[in-house]
Amino acid sequence: QTHFGPLDQKDSVNVVLFFIDAMTWPDVLRAYVESDRNFDAEVLRILNTSEYPFTDVENRLKVLQFLTDQFLITNPVREDLIHEGSFLYDDHCRICHRVGDLLCCE
């Protein structure tokens, strides 16, 4: 999504995402992969040479692996994975309401 730019051009850049549906999502996916030259060229080749959802299993797995990797490197997901399993403790006692090092009152 484009955040910085002239107001009259932001909607024209994002129009592809506004009109995404069951018929257009492969083209939106192709445009996303084409948007950054650092993305995997093999994924771009798969999207350009075949109708993506109707290709063989190996190609589908490569594209899904790429999309999964892109999802996992986003900041919110990384933060959730890093903090998974850690507990957030209250810094006050729920019974006596004292703040500080929490020691059980009971």
TrEMBL record:
The UniProt entry lists the main location of this chain as nucleus
What is the originating organism of this protein? Answer: Graphocephala atropunctata
Signal sequence: where? none
InterPro entries per record: BPTF, WHIM1_dom
Alphabetized GO MF terms:
RNA polymerase II cis-regulatory region sequence-specific DNA binding
**Gene Ontology biological process terms in this record:** regulation of transcription by RNA polymerase II
Keywords, alphabetical: Nucleus
User: Under which name does UniProt file this protein?
Assistant: WHIM1 domain-containing protein
**The keyword DNA damage is annotated on this UniProt entry:** no
- Is Isomerase there in the keyword field? no
Q: Residues in domain WHIM1?
A: 38-78
Extract one GO cellular component term from the record.
NURF complex
Q: Which PANTHER family match?
A: NUCLEOSOME-REMODELING FACTOR SUBUNIT BPTF
Q: Where is it localised?
A: Nucleus
